[in-house]
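Work Package 3 (structural annotation) set out to generate three-dimensional models for the target panel prioritized at the project kickoff. During this period the team completed the workflow that converts sequence records into discrete structure tokens, so that structures can be stored uniformly alongside our sequence database. As a representative example, we reproduce one entry of 337 residues exactly as it appears in the project archive.
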Amino acid sequence: MGPMERILKTLNFEEVDRPPIYDLPHNDAMIDYYGGGDVFKAIDNTLDMTRNIRFPQEEKLIERDGFVIEQKRWTEWIKDRPFKTLPEFKKWVENRVKKNRDYLKEDIQKEAEDMIRVVLKDQKHLRRTHRILTSPSLGLNKAYNLSGLEMFVILYHEEPSLVSEWLETEKNLLMERIFYLKEPSRVSPIIFVGEDIAHKNGPIFSPKFLEKEFFPRLKEVIDAFHKKGLKVMFHSDGNLFPILDDLVSCGIDGLNPLENMDIGKLRSKYPKLFLAGGIDCSHLLPFGTPREVSLAVEKAIKDGDRGYFLGSTSELHPNIPLENIKAMLETCWKKGR
């Protein structure tokens, strides 16, 4: 059975020879072992499905629109922002809202085309692995990442209508991009919608905030993707159990990466939700033994049943020993039926 057949059957909760493997390879040892240093070959030789393909980067500081970004080999994060005080941040948000409202139609159309183009470009380098579509942020994750969580929360307390307006304009830009997507379901059956709204023990934000500022916008975006013929795989790090009923009500088709969430409990309560992930990459993969990894994989496959994509709870990052990555992959290949 080939990767796409596995993927489609898993999306339809049909029997497969083994679960499709979905992950992100951000591990030099894995890429050397399975691809001879070639990222695309490593992906082709290990995964059935992936998303945004990354390559090792030069470690340096870069500037983007006033933000200083610290770029590491596989990751990057904001080191400095163009605002220090709440009044400065408020002014920045006001300018951001205006910029979003003045966005040119031509730029939106190009960004919609780029969503397709980047996937097709990656797919040309892959013989077998399927590269799914990925959506830009619908607003919340982007907003608190740009501002920093503390500054975001303070401004929302002081100026809730301004922050709400900012989130609405970000969502509207995404809706316009979706409008201009041309037959995306011919490129991939799945689109990845990522919004990190939780930590290991539960949601970052209160239910009241999410009910007002997140769930209605998420439902609008998901409805738009469904009209384009796409299934939505919703991604958020952390334990989403306290708000999972709300996410399902928004129309999500699948959930990833199942961090700190019991797969058997998920499958029992949400039998029509396809699941992706579940192999802990915070403790088990970096610090466990190959035997412990193999047992966790076997249990995840059994508990996930049909409709389950095997994978880590984020990505196969540099701190995971190669022998544990091999244990995860090879257990699925040999015992995944």
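The chain has two domains: 3-51+83-335, 56-81.
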